[in-house]
Amino acid sequence: MSHKLVRSLFGGAAALALLGAALAPAPTGTVAAVPTPRSACPTGQHLDKLGQFAGAGVTIRCVPATESESANDQLTISHALQVKHQGTYPVTGEAFASAVSQTASLSASKAYGGSTWQPLGTDALYSDVAGYTRTNGTGLHNLSGRIQGFAYDPANLKVWYAAVANGGLFRSTNSGSSWSSIGEGLPSQIIGSIAVAKGGTLVVGSGDPAFGGDSYAGLGAFWSSDHGTTWHHATGVPNGTITFRIAVDPIHTGIVYQATGKGLWRSTDAGHSYRNVVLPTTCTSLTKPTCFFANIVSDVVVRPFGGSGPNRSGGQVLAAVGWRAGNKLNAAGTPQAPRDGIYVSANGAPGTFTFLDPAATGFPSVARAGRTALGIAYGPSQNHDYVYALVEDPSRFNKQTQIGDTPALPPTGTPINNTLNPTVLNGLYGSSDFGQHWTLMANADQMDAPTHQSALGGTECVLGYCAGVQAWYNEWVQPSPASSETNEDGSPMFLSFGLEEVWGGSAAIPTVPNTSNFGVFGRYFSGSSCAALNLPELMGFCPTTSPTSPQGSTVHPDQHAVMYVPDGKNATLVVGNDGGAFLQKQQAQGSSTPYDNDHWADGINHGLHTLLPYDAEMSSDGTVYGGLQDNGELKITPEGKQIMSMGGDGFFSAVDPDNSKVAYEEYTGGDISVTTDGGKSWTDIQPCYTEAQFSAPFLMDPLNAKHLIAGGSQIAETVYGPGTTTAAFLGLTGTDTQLTCGPGAPVFSASTDWKLVYDLGATNGFTNTASAVDVRDDAVYAGFCGSCDIVTQGLPFHSGIATNVGGSKDPKRMTSNGWHKASAIGLPQRIVNSVTIDPKNNRTVYVTLGGYGRRWIPPGSLGDDVSKVGEGHVFVSHDAGEHFTDISGNLPDLAANFAVLHDGDLIVANDLGVYSLANVAKATSSTATYYVVGKGLPKAPVVHLQITPRSRDELLAASYGRGAYVIKLKAGSVLGGATSGRPPTKAGGKGNGGNLAATGLPTGLVVLALLLLGTGFAVRRRTG
After folding, report:
1. Neighbouring C-beta atoms of residue 361, cutoff 10 Å
2. In 719-873, where do the E strands start and end?
3. Crossing angle of helices 94-105/12-23, nearest 10°?
4. What does 555-579 look like in DSSP terms, one character per residue?
């Protein structure tokens, strides 16, 4: 996990330049945050420290030069500093734009600049490859990365567009049969939504709206009049935000609305320029940090002209404001989002929107209305006053006992503070008068009934993973526009919506609330799989969670995008999710079930080179393994075929450089599995920490393929490689347990080959957990943090460095010798993204830093103290972490994600690409000069680097949004100099004979026993 935060602006030309930008007139609808400069103070006095950066309305006074600031002054300045984000004041998001400009101005490295990056595996990810028992049989076939939005060209219904989270923009000219990138000309590949406006103009909003820990903010809005050949940056929409939806007025197609994390923006010139409509959220400032969550517009719809209803006028606008945590109080004691809910305007013009009081409309109260998706009836023959809303519940998300509304929040008999928190969904609502009145159609409890054919409605829900559990992350709702799905009164006949699965049913608004009957036709898992995505076929079907026979194909879980493409009287349904794009042609007419679970085919992901690897590791034969965001463990063969060898979320990986059949994958919370047959089967060897991050660091010693280091709340170590045992549930070969460690598991071993060599302890009442590790022979370093994600874990943030180098004893593997927390003087308090040990001197270590919280959330938005975030992204210590020096130099001013050494050069990855610092041993804070490495790498975040074992001059990069890339490096600046990640040598150990033993129990009995005991096989899922 990495977060971006960049250097402060104090001092230097960059500070003056960006301060000048901050002093420029604010966009329409914003509040200028930097006051007109004051006149000079009298002799012997000066302005308050940092006062020049304070926001509007803050009194800046002259004080005696010797006077220290009072507690009140400190508090005032602290609040002013809370807007510090990505190197600029106030919260404008301009630093990312500045970093793009900085990158463009950097020269190419003399050593590496002439080389070209080459993609590995450019076709889809295949999850149905014969022999791979952990994924073949789940009902999934070809996959790609997470899609956030679709659009089609009204002038040519075969031309489709896809907005791919971190992967850019793609176009298909054959109804999804194949895709090609049209977003390479954009300055960033972080895209949230796309639409087609007047004259075929493509309108794009940047920023990933998933609300996730690995979501990125974008660079405003863009438009293209030539199908993406050239792109132009729109004016108005601010940088540093996320985009949920772009809605085009169906009649006046030059009028465009963008629903963003910084308000609702309107264009009257087909997306060339925008104005903020300024929704009356009661906290409308786009620069005040504690208003950051108050203006998140999670969806917008425009009423088409005509239709069959009594009101046939068009152009009315309905917008949903919805932050997933709602009006939860921040550290300053004010609500994060004081007025989430529905806003309406008769014409969409700025200043015309009003808030619809939920007490009068029947919509959920402010306390119960979080992230909300909207869907409008827009078929030509339909009544366009019909609107639907799928609503996430902040009170459930916050695990509160009850806030105002009745009935009680949780499912019957389940305490709301249950750690399982089985769902965060409020429910589905319908309106027949364009939002003036709402009726509950189905709530979360009703949808959990087993009759709805949900794969999550049986065992998985009992185990705490019910429908809507990720409604904060994945949701959409849309009635079919097909004329065959329209009732005689003009109301839609069929309504579909996406949560973890794809749901559908009658769009009729019930006269008795909460009585609609919806069913799943895009199941979480299908085929012959059983108990989520983790178990192979047992008896040809799974009686606890699916019908009594094997099912056909399905869609990947976690639904984010929808598009209905007209097809005569029918419509083709296209959905986007964490696994890419899927379609189904309409199977029936005039029915509340025009689609089903058995006609999804194989997916439409050919050409979508958009996977999101957190890591990529190569063996000497060219085989690559890597953990993927919600697509499990990637294996790329030397021929370039991409195979999903394990399902769910994948993170760090490792592979024996001399034997590509031996590899390791990691699931959430640092749960590690090993394969000895090239990923066809896996055995769980989790280290059993007390706690671990969602993405916990895990690494193989480059000098010994059996020496592994993993970091949670403790540092775990093993020297037994694939023979490592665990003190957790001992499953059968080929099963992935995902169960708790230690006593309490139904089949338990007290022995383990993992050694917990050091406990990272706690800081400020929060358990410290590892965020990065490096190992070389006996030497180990670990970056750690306490309250690593302040958005979900609380305040305050803390980070540091632990190591066994430079301690009271010499480091020795599998022991606690030398372990201690280094002083880390000079290292800012931010996430440690990577640590790199110098192969020639283990007292020299390089550290790259991100930010904290979430990449898309500015520090200070939760009322947090930002006085210790410091500046800089790349640091070096020559005394085992006691003191650090900033060597960020001219590196673009944003998070640094990873670093490796090559021929004495330091190669650094960040959210825009890869850079090199020649002869790093001689670099100082004033002389460090970085160059761009290579050509042809997409402008997506690069989160991991490896000097591959098949060549000390080959660099492998994990592009988070565009898959894996390699480049052939030329000689660096110091021939024979330090190069990290050299090919490992053979080493002794327990050998391969230590694999987990079978229990001797029949598989079916083991599974049945687990279910009866109330434990289970975890769904491979996301966390908040």
Report:
1. 18
2. 755-759, 762-763, 766-776, 779-786, 798-803, 820-821, 832-838, 841-849
3. 130
4. PPSSEEEEEEEEETTEEEEEEEETT
Pull the structure tokens for residue 479. Answer: 């009635």
Which sign does the torsion angle of CA 645, 751, 695, 576 carry? positive
Residue 96 has a pLDDT of: 72
Question: Pairing state of beta strands 142-143 and 502-506?
Answer: unpaired
Tell me the H-state helices in 637-778.
none
Residue 759, Cβ density class (10 Å: 0-12 exposed, 13-18 middle, ≥19 buried) = middle
Mean pLDDT value across residues 501-514? 97
Q: Rounded to whole angstroms, how far apart are CA atoms 726 and 684? A: 8
Label residue 860 by pLDDT band (50, 70, 90): confident
Using an 8 Å Cβ cutoff, are 1016 and 459 in contact? yes
Measured distance CA(288)–CA(82) in Å, rounded = 9
CB 157 within 8 A of CB 565: yes
Angle, vertex CA 3, rays to CA 918 and CA 920, nearest 5: 10
Supply angle C-alpha 585, 586, 588, rounded to 5. Answer: 150
pLDDT (tens digit per residue) in 145-194: 999 999 999 999 999 999 999 999 999 999 999 999 999 999 999 999 99
Task: Give the whole-angstrom CA distance, residue 1020 versus residue 1024.
Answer: 14
DSSP 139-172: S--EE-S---EEEEETTEEEEEEEEETTTEEEEE
- Around Cβ 101, how many Cβ atoms within 10 Å? 11
Write down the pTM of the prediction.
0.86
Angle at the Cα of 314 from the Cα atoms of 308 and 320, rounded to 5 degrees: 105
Asked whether the beta carbons of 530 and 601 are under 8 A apart, the reply is no
HEC-encoded secondary structure of 433-446: CCCCCCEEEEEHHH
What are the CA-CA distances from residue 690 to residues 161, 523, 741, 759 (Å)? Answer: 45, 34, 9, 9
CB 958 within 8 A of CB 613: yes
CA torsion sign for 643, 647, 652, 653 is negative
Q: What is the CA radius of gyration of the chain?
A: 27
Please provide the DSSP assignment of 785-808 as one string: EESS-HHHH-S--EEEEEESSSSS
Tell me whether strands 354-355 and 372-376 are parallel, antiparallel or unpaired: unpaired
Task: Round to whole Å and give the CA distance between 1013 and 459.
Answer: 12
What is the DSSP-derived secondary structure letter of residue 329? B
Max Cα–Cα distance, the chain, nearest Å: 88
Q: Round to whole Å and give the CA distance between 478 and 254.
A: 23
Strand 118-120 relative to strand 766-776, pairing: unpaired
Distance CA 864, CA 868 (A): 11
